[in-house]
């Protein structure tokens, strides 16, 4: 089997960027940057404003990540006999020996591959989101989320490449 390669597709990343801008617009409206926050029969103005600021923070992060991916023409995800390269995480290939389990997770019909690292400190996340790994409440712990959204490949092709290349390694692959 040939090495698996997933590259960013600019129009898909552009759609993610557009979604982030729409979220940013509504977040700024709820935060009160376009005028006073309107009272709701269900939520207090303070809650709406706090939720608006949270939406602004999340949509800004999504927008920056999408913008960077739009201009990145390198191989975004690579799977081969040496290991897995995920440029959103690291600039080096993570060898198969560093994973103790690979599983799948589904979020509302969107499937992602979860790469469970033995020691996350050996391969820290790079970039402006790398700080999240060191928070004590980081929700994914030693796990890398391999999301193929915005690329030219699909989940099934990536999972079959992982099964093929990890078959002779000591990695548990749960499908």
What are its keywords?
175 residues; alpha+beta; four-stranded antiparallel β-sheet; four-stranded mixed β-sheet; 3 helices; 8 strands
For the sheet with most strands, the description reads: 4 strands, antiparallel
Residue ranges: pLDDT <50 for 5 or more in a row?
none
The helix/strand class is alpha+beta
Helix tally equals: 3
Distance between the termini: 19 Å
Question: How do you describe this structure in short?
Answer:
The protein is α+β, with helices and mostly antiparallel strands. It is built from 3 helices and 8 strands. A hairpin with a 7-residue loop joins strand 3 and strand 4 (94-95).
Describe the protein.
The protein is built from three helices and eight strands. By secondary structure, it is an alpha+beta fold. The protein folds into two domains: 64 residues; 99 residues. Helix 1 runs antiparallel to helix 2. It is elongated, with a radius of gyration of 19 Å. The mean pLDDT is 84.
């Amino acid at each position: 089997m040939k090495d698996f390669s997933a590259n960013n597709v600019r129009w898909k990343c552009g759609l993610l960027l557009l979604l982030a801008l729409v979220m940013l617009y509504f977040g700024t409206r709820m935060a009160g940057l376009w005028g006073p926050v309107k009272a709701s029969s269900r939520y207090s103005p303070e809650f709406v404003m706090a939720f608006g600021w949270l939406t602004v923070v999340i949509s800004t992060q999504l927008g920056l990540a999408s913008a960077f991916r739009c201009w990145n023409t390198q191989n975004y995800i690579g799977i081969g006999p040496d290991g897995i390269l995920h440029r959103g995480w690291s600039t080096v290939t993570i060898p198969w020996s560093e994973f103790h389990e690979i599983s799948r997770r589904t979020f509302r019909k969107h499937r992602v591959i979860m790469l469970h690292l033995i020691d996350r400190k050996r391969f820290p996340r790079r970039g402006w989101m790398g700080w999240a790994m060191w928070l004590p409440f980081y929700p994914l712990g030693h796990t890398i989320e391999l999301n193929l959204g915005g690329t030219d490949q699909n989940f099934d092709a990536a999972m079959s490449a992982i099964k093929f290349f990890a078959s002779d390694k000591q990695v548990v692959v749960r499908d």
